[in-house]
Amino acid sequence: MRILVATDGSGHSDAAIDAIARRPPPPGSEVRVISVVAPYFPTTYVSWEGMDVSRIVEMEKEVREQAHAAVENAAATLRAHEACRQLIISTDVLSGSPKRMILEDADAFGADVIVVGSHGRGMVERFVLGSVSQAVALHARCSVEIVRSQPTQLSGVPQQ
């Protein structure tokens, strides 16, 4: 079995990694852990005159370092589980649109399933912002598992 899991280092992504660890695939299965770094573009019109390009380069470097840490932490979590020790685990950090890169990498890897975390966004946010997990589920050529993280407490009141 070939499993592609995408992580951004968030708790939602951690839930996807934990789901794989709790019910590991057959021995010899391959798990590819990826993170996708989207290129930096200002969200509003910005005059490039006087723009500190070195700061943009530094921000992109920081994001890439965080992505590398996320995939390595995810792989380490899987390797720490006894039942996952026979898995073949690889990691990579890709650049581009997360939606597109996850789908393209799944095809290139020959994934049987893609596992992603859900950000639990409501309908309005999904419509306005788009959702990586939703786009992957709609367009993947293989099965997709969207893992929800456990409810958290907000202001002392459990979410429902």
Please tell me about this protein's structure.
With 160 residues, the protein is an alpha/beta fold. It has helices at residues 11-22, 53-80, 98-109, 123-129, 132-139; strands at residues 2-6, 30-37, 88-95, 113-117, 143-147, 153-154, 157-158. The chain has a 5-stranded parallel β-sheet with strand order 3-2-1-4-5, sandwiched between helices. Strands 6-7 form a two-stranded antiparallel ribbon. α1 packs parallel to α2. The longest helix has 28 residues, at 53-80. It starts with a strand and ends with a strand. The model is unreliable at 124-130 (pLDDT under 50).
Largest sheet: 5 strands, parallel
Rounded mean pLDDT is 83
Relative strand content: 15-25%
Helix tally equals: 5
Global outline? globular
> Going across the major beta sheet, what is the strand order?
3-2-1-4-5
Proportion of residues in helical segments = 40-55%
Point out poorly predicted stretches.
124-130
> Which structural category fits the helices and strands?
alpha/beta
Summary?
The chain is of the alpha/beta class. It has helices at residues 11-22, 53-80, 98-109, 123-129, 132-139, and strands at residues 2-6, 30-37, 88-95, 113-117, 143-147, 153-154, 157-158. It contains five helices and seven strands; from the N terminus they run βαβαβαβααβββ.
